[in-house]
């Protein structure tokens, strides 16, 4: 299985913390979430696009702290 330091697992745990996962409504919402390592097969052959409105320099206010998920998981022990 995947280790808990994999980026997909870190994202899954983060979203789980935002949901009421102990209720039926939150549990079913969590079941609908799928997180992948890399780009999943139907989309890996598609052309990549940049969405300007989602760029970090436009979205985050100056001086805000941020962290890349891949770097975070590598620092806590993910080996890839």
From TrEMBL:
<dbReference type="InterPro" id="IPR036899">
    <property type="entry name" value="Ribosomal_uL13_sf"/>
</dbReference>
<dbReference type="GO" id="GO:0003729">
    <property type="term" value="F:mRNA binding"/>
</dbReference>
<dbReference type="GO" id="GO:0003735">
    <property type="term" value="F:structural constituent of ribosome"/>
</dbReference>
<keyword id="KW-0689">Ribosomal protein</keyword>
<protein>
    <submittedName>
        <fullName>Ribosomal protein L13A</fullName>
    </submittedName>
</protein>
<dbReference type="InterPro" id="IPR005822">
    <property type="entry name" value="Ribosomal_uL13"/>
</dbReference>
<dbReference type="InterPro" id="IPR005823">
    <property type="entry name" value="Ribosomal_uL13_bac-type"/>
</dbReference>
<comment type="similarity">
    <text>Belongs to the universal ribosomal protein uL13 family.</text>
</comment>
<dbReference type="GO" id="GO:0022625">
    <property type="term" value="C:cytosolic large ribosomal subunit"/>
</dbReference>
<dbReference type="Pfam" id="PF00572">
    <property type="entry name" value="Ribosomal_L13"/>
</dbReference>
<dbReference type="GO" id="GO:0017148">
    <property type="term" value="P:negative regulation of translation"/>
</dbReference>
<dbReference type="GO" id="GO:0006412">
    <property type="term" value="P:translation"/>
</dbReference>
<keyword id="KW-0687">Ribonucleoprotein</keyword>
């Amino acid at each position: 299985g995947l280790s808990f330091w994999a980026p997909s697992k870190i994202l899954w745990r983060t979203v789980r913390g935002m949901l009421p996962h102990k209720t039926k409504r939150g549990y079913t919402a969590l079941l609908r979430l799928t997180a992948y390592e890399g780009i999943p097969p139907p989309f890996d052959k598609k052309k990549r696009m940049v969405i300007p409105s989602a760029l970090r320099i436009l979205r985050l206010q100056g001086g805000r702290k941020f962290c890349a998920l891949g770097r975070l998981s590598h620092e806590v022990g993910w080996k890839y």
